[in-house]
Amino acid sequence: MKNTFENIDDYIFLFPEIEDTLKELRKIIHAQNPEIEEYIGYQMPAFKYKNKPLVYFAGYKKHIGFYPGAEGIKNFEDEFKIRKYKFSKGAVQFPLKEELPAELIRKIVQFRMDEIENKKS
């Protein structure tokens, strides 16, 4: 049976072993701008800015998946390679055995907000 939840608190509750890390990630995202809003998208914690999808995250056994979209990944590929993070077209994996890369997350969220601002007509 698939877990369903109505908000990010319910989602985080499903991961007691990494609850603090997920809460820290959420706090880092919100600290970027007071206009960032939460929602559930694709059964994951999701955040929007100016009513546009900003980033998503998901908890896994050995990592946290962070989903900033294709441009968000492409722009930071070199840094992911330096840190030896696994990544794909739309996601990067932050290993649970390492500290969250707070500064990198801030840069990615800022990049995505700038991207949203610049796409406005």
From TrEMBL:
Residue ranges occupied by any YdhG-like domain in the UniProt entry: 20-113
Family matches, as SUPFAM superfamilies: YdhG-like (SSF159888)
Name of the protein: DUF1801 domain-containing protein
Organism: Chryseobacterium cheonjiense
